[in-house]
Amino acid sequence: MSRKLSYFNVNGYTEAIRYMLHYGNVKFEDVRYDHSQWPIKEVKDSLPYGQLPIYEEDGRVLNQSIAIARYVASQTGLLPADLWEQAKLDAAVLNVYDLLKKFVAYYYESDPKKREDAKKTLEGDIVFFYSRFDKELKANGGHFGGKLSWADFILVGAVELLNLYMNDTLQTNYPAIAALVSEIHGYPGVKVYVSKREPYKPPQLE
User: Fold this and answer.
1) pTM of the model
2) All residues at 6 or more sequence positions from 193 whose CB lies less than 8 Å from its CB, including other chains
3) What sequence ranges are listed for the domain GST N-terminal (predicted)?
4) Which distant-in-sequence residues (6+ apart) come within 8 Å of 77 by Cβ?
5) Which of 3, 136, 153, 196 has the greatest number of C-beta atoms within 10 Å?
6) Domain over 83-186 is classified CATH 3.40.91.80
């Protein structure tokens, strides 16, 4: 079976998916575009909605990072069979994405004064969400659903994204989050991938 994941050469919304694929020892083509060269017209025009990421499997194409991550989870033992448990994990993932939306609003703010204010707001949002994520992880044995799932990978990907763009190690004061990051980095497939991965740099905005 041929598989291909296409995104930019940043962690962003897709690093969690890369982690899951490596965790499951799934062979795939990891296609990365240089953010500074985007858009590439012929590539953008070929995409279902003109956006990355996309995941391809034997000629089938799936867009939207949450949909891709959930599907990959179903193929790597990271999605429970119980529908209620699935829904709880969906909620956890959407909570993480709510925080990421707030980060995006800050990151793309071009007015210096508004950007400074947005950063202060984001810092408060991080405390709000991280404290709740940490509490939920502690209450469930270190994972959102009581055992390792795709929602845990999504959180770790988000934490690493925020660390990179905020130039900080934000999970330091949240022991359950920090433990989860260490746990996922310790899985053999992920560990090998991270050891070979080039350090990420935030793309320069024009």
Assistant:
1) 0.96
2) 18, 19, 22
3) 1-80
4) 24
5) 153
6) no
